[in-house]
């Protein structure tokens, strides 16, 4: 007997069946994997019993997923995406230390410290770590803009955000340094300014890279889906 | 059902070994392989398989390829170099566990 293969119209009904169960399942990457697995099951059922209608086969196949239906698969998928970006981000952090960016960041930190000393010697910095405050504001605004711009970018972007949550930690760390350094001497303030400026710049570069990767992954998937289901 | 639970505990090793033997496979194919390989005695549910697959993928042991098959996109999983090493280690550990279990099940106290 010939293998039963669902037609494009039947596959569209399957996709509709899946995505109407929860908006969570409509995420393109998840929908793609769910549709194929579900379609394999439906095809097998129709092959065994040719009297079954597509609706009956879909209901039967859905029941075989268990009481929670597609939810455990969605959960596993989302967790997997998060973990993948987290692993990628950590690997990038390690590679950053071995790249040419690292001496560049040290140089930037040294320059920031030197600038701080020069400004404070000329009494141009009235409010302690004004330079760091400026860097904090710039970092915070850029992170905010990047996060806002990519907010509506889908699951990959969302999980990449979650995986890079320590970019916000460094913002708070910088504010903490600002508060504490009121009580520190000029040299210590210069060192803290240099270290924090270097750390914030490094984080900004890593965060931008992660967002670029998530955007590229999303684009690639959309292209695949577009050419298949156009 | 009991067999299913025992197999589920070693699911990562099973999946890695299946991929080692068959090159690349997709989700449904893996569930069928487990079912057919055990002559219908064991079934793995999707709720168990996909978390295991995604965990292995996130751990950097699997690579994926997406291509058209039967009019739809299909995601294939395959072992990468790290995954191949891990597969050998997990299979050895599994075989060792089975052999220990067999010894334990046959063990009798000398004065018993």
Based on CA atoms alone, the radius of gyration of chain A comes out at 26 Å
Q: What is the end-to-end distance of chain A?
A: 31 Å
**Residue share in helix of chain A:** over 70%
Q: Summarize the biggest pleated sheet of chain B.
A: 3 strands, antiparallel
Please report the first level of CATH classification, the CATH class of chain B.
Mainly Alpha
According to DSSP, the number of beta strands of chain A is 0
Q: SSE layout and pairings?
A:
The complex is a heterodimer of chains A (230) and B (112).
Chain A: H1 8-19, H2 28-48, H3 54-63, H4 71-98, H5 101-121, H6 130-150, H7 155-163, H8 166-180, H9 186-229
Helix pairs in contact in A: 1-2, 2-3, 4-7, 4-9, 5-9, 6-8, 6-9, 7-9, 8-9
Chain B: H1 2-9, H2 11-22, E1 24-26, H3 27-37, H4 46-58, E2 62-69, E3 72-79, H5 81-106
Antiparallel strand pairs in B: 1-3, 2-3
Report on this structure.
The complex is a heterodimer of chains A (230) and B (112). Chain A has helices at residues 8-19, 28-48, 54-63, 71-98, 101-121, 130-150, 155-163, 166-180, 186-229. Chain A has 230 residues and is mainly α. Chain A starts with 7 loop residues before the first helix and ends with a helix. Chain B has one domain: Winged helix-like DNA-binding domain superfamily/Winged helix DNA-binding domain (Arc Repressor Mutant, subunit A), CATH 1.10.10. In chain B, strand 2 (62-69) and strand 3 (72-79) form a beta hairpin. Chain B is α+β, with helices and mostly antiparallel strands and 112 residues long. Chain B has a three-stranded antiparallel β-sheet with strand order 1-3-2. Classes of the chains: A mainly alpha (230), B alpha+beta (112).
